[in-house]
């Protein structure tokens, strides 16, 4: 089972850079990179909410479940 983070897809749709999104939501560029690459082990709801507000999207646009079976 895998949770896929599609924040990079939504950023591309909204024509927003990682740096710009990181500044808008108040996280470091390094943490933004961890989210984009799918290496994050967890995400705070407050961070997810800030991402959704900044990108004008829903949590389901950012997070995806894939069954690896």
Task: Give the structure's gist in a few sentences.
The chain is mostly helical and about 70 residues long. Helices cover about 55% and strands about 10% of the residues. It is globular and about 35 Å long.
Core attributes:
single chain, 69 residues, mainly alpha, two-stranded antiparallel sheet, 12% strand, globular
Q: What is the helix content? A: 55-70%
Low-pLDDT windows of residues: none
Percent strand? 5-15%
Question: How many strands, what sense, and barrel or not for the largest sheet?
Answer: 2 strands, antiparallel
Q: What would the average pLDDT be, to the nearest integer?
A: 93
Q: Treating each run of at least 4 consecutive H or I residues as one helix, how many helices?
A: 5
The run of helices and strands is EHHHHHE
Strand order of the largest sheet: 1-2
Instruction: Calculate the terminal CA-CA distance, rounded to whole Å.
Output: 8 Å
Oligomer: single chain
Please compute the radius of gyration using only Cα atoms. Answer: 11 Å
Principal-axis shape equals: globular
Please tally the β strands and state the result: 2
Q: Given the helix and strand composition, which structural class is it?
A: mainly alpha
């Amino acid at each position: 089972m895998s949770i896929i983070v599609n924040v990079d897809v939504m950023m591309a749709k909204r024509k927003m850079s990682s740096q710009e999104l990181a500044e808008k939501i108040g996280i470091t560029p390094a943490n933004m990179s961890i989210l984009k690459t799918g290496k994050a082990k967890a995400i705070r709801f407050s961070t997810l909410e800030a991402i959704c507000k900044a990108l004008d999207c829903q949590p389901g646009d950012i997070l995806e479940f894939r069954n690896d079976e």
